[in-house]
């Protein structure tokens, strides 16, 4: 279980941004759900512990969007009870957070382009919002 959870919620994975860690997170979510569903009757604390870990990863605003994406795609696969009791009630708050991040990212892009017009010689550092992760999380919410 720990390797699967790690694949889901680790911040960075692989050699660079061009690697498809999204597919690995998707596969890990599927396998995690299969294991939980198969062994839930034998290990009654398994599903609640996994669910708690994933909810912490999703609800912590300090966690990276790639971490939140892993939790967001795994939680629905753990069953309808998890969806109704934990995930759905949290989604409006999470959606608002994504909306704020998207607005912040767009503002940063606009400021960077304005600054580049003013000073062509000084490249601007992009702030820490990963647009791919932002789009993936937004898409994953359309469960």
Structure, described:
- With 143 residues, this protein is mainly α.
- It has a single domain, classed as TAF6, C-terminal HEAT repeat domain (Serine Threonine Protein Phosphatase 5, Tetratricopeptide repeat), CATH 1.25.40.770.
- 70% of the residues lie in helices and 0% in strands.
- The chain is built from six helices and no strands.
- The longest helix is centred in the last third of the chain and has 39 residues, at 80-118.
CATH fold naming: Serine Threonine Protein Phosphatase 5, Tetratricopeptide repeat
Biggest sheet statistics: none
CATH architecture identity: Alpha Horseshoe
Tell me the span between the first and last alpha carbons: 24 Å
The CATH class name reads Mainly Alpha
Backbone CA Rg: 18 Å
Mean pLDDT: 82
Number of helices: 6
Count of beta strands: 0
Compact overview of the structure:
This protein is an all-alpha fold and 143 residues long.
Feature tags:
6 helices, mainly alpha, 143 residues, single chain, globular, Serine Threonine Protein Phosphatase 5, Tetratricopeptide repeat
Topology diagram in text:
Elements: H1 2-9, H2 21-39, H3 46-59, H4 65-74, H5 80-118, H6 131-140
């Amino acid at each position: 279980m720990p390797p699967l959870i790690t694949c889901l919620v680790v911040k960075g994975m692989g050699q660079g941004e061009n690697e498809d860690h999204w597919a690995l997170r998707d596969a890990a979510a599927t396998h995690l759900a299969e294991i939980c569903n198969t062994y839930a009757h034998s290990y009654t604390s398994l599903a609640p512990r996994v669910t708690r870990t994933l909810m912490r990863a999703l609800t912590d605003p300090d966690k990276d969007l790639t971490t939140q994406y892993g939790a967001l795609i795994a939680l629905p696969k753990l069953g309808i009870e998890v969806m109704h009791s934990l995930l759905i009630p949290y989604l409006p708050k999470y959606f608002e957070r994504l909306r704020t991040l998207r607005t912040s990212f767009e503002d940063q892009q606009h400021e960077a382009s304005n600054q580049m017009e003013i000073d062509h010689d000084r490249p601007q550092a992009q702030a820490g919002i990963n647009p791919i992760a932002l789009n993936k999380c937004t898409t994953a919410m359309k469960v």
